[in-house]
Amino acid sequence: MIKVTGYAAKHSFSRLKKYEFEREDAKAHEVEIEVLYCGVCHSDIHQVKNEWHNTVYPCVPGHEIVGRVTKVGPAVRKHAVGDLVGVGCMIDSCGQCEACASGDQNYCMAPNSWLATYNGPMQPKSKVGENIYGRDNTFGGYSNMLVVKEDFVLKIPAQLKPEVAAPILCAGVTTYSPLKHWGVKAGDKVGIIGMGGLGHMAAKIAKAMGAEVTMFTRTREKIEEANKLGFDAVIEDDKQALKDLEASFDFMLSTVPEKHDINNYVQLLKRNAALVLVGALEPMAPVDNMQVAFKRRTVAGSLIGNLAETQEVLDFCAEHNIGPEIEIIRMQDINDAYNKVEKGDVRFRYVIDMASLKEEMGE
Amino acid sequence: MIKVTGYAAKHSFSRLKKYEFEREDAKAHEVEIEVLYCGVCHSDIHQVKNEWHNTVYPCVPGHEIVGRVTKVGPAVRKHAVGDLVGVGCMIDSCGQCEACASGDQNYCMAPNSWLATYNGPMQPKSKVGENIYGRDNTFGGYSNMLVVKEDFVLKIPAQLKPEVAAPILCAGVTTYSPLKHWGVKAGDKVGIIGMGGLGHMAAKIAKAMGAEVTMFTRTREKIEEANKLGFDAVIEDDKQALKDLEASFDFMLSTVPEKHDINNYVQLLKRNAALVLVGALEPMAPVDNMQVAFKRRTVAGSLIGNLAETQEVLDFCAEHNIGPEIEIIRMQDINDAYNKVEKGDVRFRYVIDMASLKEEMGE
Predict the structure, then answer these.
(1) Residue B162 belongs to some domain of the structure
(2) Given an 8 Å threshold on Cβ–Cβ distance, is A271 in contact with B298?
(3) Predicted pLDDT at A295
(4) Complex ipTM
(5) B255 and B233 in one domain?
(6) How far does the CA of residue B228 sit from the closest CA of chain A (Å)?
(7) Rounded to a whole number, what is the distance in Å from the CA of A226 to chain B's nearest CA?
(8) pLDDT at residue B267 above 80?
(9) Are residues B212 and B184 in the same domain?
(10) Chain B interface test: which of A263, A282, A296, A309 (most B C-beta within 10 Å)
């Protein structure tokens, strides 16, 4: 067993604090990783606060993890000690179902679906009455060490700084996957709704794909920031701007992490175009099917991305020299960081420097 | 001018009754048609009652029209006197926009969009400030004569009875178009929600395409009727049946003509599969994006079909020897028929025999 130090929430109403636990040693196909950086995702907050009504406590969040391989199991072929690697939202899937067979582990159809990097299987034993992974909880990247199956460990390209690479493992692939799946291409007009961690990554990726990008935000101060990053930007309640943009977008992506009204955005889609929601995993405001049907529009959802897409987006960001705008924080600042994320005060992704944990470990 | 007798509503709260009006004589590219049969569509009732808040009165409904050509303009090439022909929901479109250029007149992007067979342009002058068609109202097939541009007149195949062909012009194409657009093919499992005029046609067409069809209805008595027609059928609130069907459908089509909760049906879709709404043109109940995103599902809308698809579905029904289940009524019975449609008492489509109008014309 490996002694591990992390930060955990004990209840939905408690602040995160130091938590010591053990991880099993790396098995034949597993890799032991020293965590260097871990991004702070809005879903960490949803999960800690039990806003999806499925949190298992203690909860050690973190699924935007970059670290260095410190040990490998005897059967590991893909990674070596010293490699800079990443771990995203998943650490296992059934490997047998039609989704896994076609490479879409993120849509694993096994009773428990995939095994999340933290909080255990996506469908817990309490809901589906079995647990193919034998673990009801898993502990994520807000910790100094991680042990993960080699297939679920990604390679961090040398051109990417490790702290910049971290958010690509969730915010990056969650937006890259639908942009790719719905065929966004050079010359397309793409709208990105919400300008947080996911939204600003989506915009950078879409632009690198050759699309013309417009961001929609509720925060007036972000207009200038969007322009600085090279994007058009519109305030969500600017009625004239919305009218001028009617039926003009080839694709739109909503990254807003909570229930919101998408009707204004549906009207901005061209005929046959899609609006895909990746932020809000909950009941949405009612959608007017008059607007949807009259241009054969589509409203869809998408969930992170598969392993191949995760490696692709890391390589894509390296190749196009793009990455998230980040602010490094210490592990001890996490509760304050959560408050700022909820207020929309972050520009644009907090990344925890795990070296800060060492002082609490007596090193 | 041609003297025409029809049935009209004068207000949103009035019953339909005899109404005499004039139509202009057929111009160079127009065809004059003696109406033989006209189907009764649920949207006739929505329109008569001003439930879409855009009805122009007097309102002469009817857009499932079969008749015989009685006169042709000098430039008409496609039709001849004596031909059995059909007219559906549209009688004109701009012909210039990208949608029209690609053959999708039903998504015409001109300011007024397409010209509806009754009630005038889809976007009235009062809304968009111009009217390319020069007509603020049009009178539909609840009348003895019609004059229509030849391009918007379809050919009724000889194998189809005229009264059976009539509902194919709206109920048929409205369901055929999305089944075709979303690529339904032999072996697919298709769910049809609602078992009225549209729903039962959708089921017949999907089955003729080689799909395995399950109908969902709120009316217990329709289960047996669905089975008789060769379809599986499930009551909408049969929780066990819905659970057993989870994630099993390649495609679903909702034909329910009013706001309804589709969350139970979204859960029945396979990964990457679509639920398309063609019945309800209004704000829907909230959809849980958790269910949508977790299998990258799609919710979309579709509006009737284009001219080519309308001819295709007529030919397809003739070839596969299918058609709607109809009940012939007299024009004078229309108000009673509306009541029955609203109660779901019709099995499955009323078709008006226009010969019944003659007695009111003193013939």
Answers:
(1) yes
(2) no
(3) 97
(4) 0.92
(5) yes
(6) 32
(7) 27
(8) yes
(9) yes
(10) A296
